[in-house]
Sequence to fold (539 residues):
Amino acid sequence: MLKSSVYTLLSALFILFFLPCPVDSANIILMEKLDIAQVWAGHPVNFAIRTTEKLQCVAFYNTNRRMVVASRSPDSTSWKYTELPTTTGWDSHNYIAMAIDDSGYIHISGNMHNVNLIYFRSKKPWNTDSFESPGMIGTLENSITYPEFIEGPNNQLFFQYRTGGSGNGITICNSYDTKTKKWTRLTSKGLFDGENKVSAYHISPVLGPDNFFHIVWMWRETPVANTNFHISHMKSSDLITWQTMSGKSISIPVKTSTPDVVVDPISSGRGLINMDYWISWDRLNRAVITYHRYDDNNISQIFNTRWENGKWKIYQTSNWTNFKWNLDREGSLSHDIAATLLSIDENGELIQDYVYPNQKMKRWILNEETLKPQSDIVYESPQAMRELYEVESTFPGLQVNRIRDGEYYLRWETMPINQDKSRPDGTYPPASTLRVYRFSIETEVQKRTRNSSGKFYVKKNHSGIIITGDFKNAYRNISLTASVFSFNGKLILKKRFLNGKQCRISQRNLSTGVYLIKITQDKAFPDINAVFCEKVVLR
Fold:
């Protein structure tokens, strides 16, 4: 089942650009809206977007279902297109994964559901004119599903995938060397081994406030969705050696018999589903795992299980009374019920968004101790972002798909998931427009700064916050100061850097919470109004 689904709600670590800024008057603004191409609309399958300061790349399936890479400089409105030699079918598992390594080479993999490895790498750095298929290791590459590029410690690039089918798969991880441009197997054995009886479904590694990478997984017996069992957890500082939440060493590969990793010992047939399950942290940096399963009355519920006092404590957050999500099916499924990870809103409240059948997206404000809703309201997207959520085509039955990369969003429309089955001609539209949007929050001082001088880039990755100044070239070497404030205005730290250079603030210095980044110039220049602020949310 498609873990990185078309119903993308939130990432695990990110800058929350659409929250109001606690200083001055702030508005969500549409910074950019740009058509990319006409794309396949017969069924949903995830595309990919990656953005650096030098290059933005988008990988998608065109109207003929051929994989295409579009690229541009972030300050350009013109796209370059390169078609790759692979064509997708009707399978929503066959999403596209993409990465740009530290040397600027673009890596793409996708269109795989139990097939041979499909992998492309650009022939030149920062350039998408031509690609090659250099292969990787050469073994355990003939039945691949769920490809994923992962940024590890020190920007190390990893590639993870499942070999084998649902119910008998093994998770494999490779490591990339940017100097030799070679892949090596990270461990001699797979990360997970179901011993030809079950297979593991897991999320991507998430870097927590404790500087450990965390993985959550469940086991599945067969291709039927309702045969998942035992949602589990482990963590690692290097993605090579692993341990339980309490710090006990784990032998690799992980098996169903591995001790002390089970979070909720729910059995097969009880509604545990490998869709929209997450790990996040509350305001006290306690890990919380979110997932769907049935309650004791066989009713669908959202659970948030938290690490407390050396053990996992299970909380049922929802209290629904009359809906049971039918999971006794195979293939890609629609998201009848889904909840996001926990996050912190602009008021410092612990929140969680969710969807429920025949309802709009809603939001809980949670009691932090009980993880029960204190309020339950309809979530209204910011006015400037409404287009991301509303279907514009008149063709009946379409849905909007979104993929996020920092402040950039991809948007396109397709028919819903059809359990990986084809549709008759005439029952789906010939194409949809793929667009990229860039949104930001802007105060009046930011607006004056942008209009007179240039702009700043504030990004969030697994290691912390990255700030880059971009004033006019005449002031390329002026000294700037980045100040980090808590949500209530307390100064946390200051760091100086040169315009045009990067300022890196390690997450080790910051706990989970909402912060304001303020940038000022150290020396006054008459035509520069060098005050900038941006809100950052750390999970």
